């Protein structure tokens, strides 16, 4: 049963929404509509093949953000993993929801096994049964304490997904650098094709990488690019957001 948020929880939730600049949009916004036929038509010409960085923006619902942040935090020192559901609109990837995967990670990596793939298939099938038509659009995992970037293993995983599951997104969350009730440390990325060599640009955002991770970061940082990330919610999300906040935060 949903309890009313007490004043301290309510203040923390408001601060969370301010820190993460969560924009309120109208319930009737097209972002909440999903037309399967027009969606598949829009991706049938595979625009990412003509422009390797075609997708430039990510919009993540506040519900998906809280779920991913909570899951990342629950893993402690271990990496955790989950999938995101959503769609693409033009050059923007939209994450509507997220769900955790039954995957056990280590302190340095996480990889799905056969059971996880069975779980994914069943979850998406059940989602469609209740009218949730959005497809899986990407995976997320945590980097506890060492920032938001893709390791060599992460890049290989993402490239494999992009080969068979396009359009596909990788999101990384650092639960330790996420200040409680504050800004979520998050990054969204897509891998370049194997044979592509990007312009020799410096990383777009400075971040502290632990010494034992610097080599892995440096060797692979030119194999993928970051997408600009923003967050949204509607008034319809309010009750569910309160419930998630009450239960997990």
- Note the run of SSEs as H and E: HEHHEHEEHEHEEHEEH
Multimeric status of the protein: single chain
Portion of residues within helices = 25-40%
Question: What's the story with the biggest beta sheet?
Answer: 9 strands, mixed
Percent range for β-strand residues: 15-25%
Morphology: globular
Instruction: Count every beta strand, where a strand is a DSSP E run of 2 or more residues.
Output: 9
Mean pLDDT: 83
Radius of gyration: 18 Å
Helix count? 8
Uncertain segments are none
Q: How would you characterize this protein structure?
A:
By secondary structure, the protein is α/β, with parallel strands linked by helices. 34% of the residues lie in helices and 22% in strands. It is built from eight helices and nine strands. A nine-stranded mixed sheet has the order 1-9-2-4-3-5-6-7-8. Strand 3 and strand 4 form a beta hairpin. Helix 4 packs parallel to helix 8. The chain is globular, with a radius of gyration of 18 Å. The two termini are 16 Å apart. The mean pLDDT is 83.
Give the topology.
Elements: H1 7-19, E1 22-24, H2 36-43, H3 47-50, E2 57-61, H4 62-74, E3 81-89, E4 92-100, H5 114-129, E5 135-142, H6 152-164, E6 169-173, E7 186-191, H7 214-220, E8 224-226, E9 228-233, H8 238-248
Parallel strand pairs: 1-9, 2-4, 2-9, 5-6
Antiparallel strand pairs: 3-4, 3-5, 6-7, 7-8
Helix pairs in contact: 4-8
Short description:
The protein has 249 residues and is an alpha/beta fold.
Q: What descriptors fit this protein?
A:
nine-stranded mixed β-sheet; 9 strands; 8 helices; 34% helix; 249 residues; alpha/beta
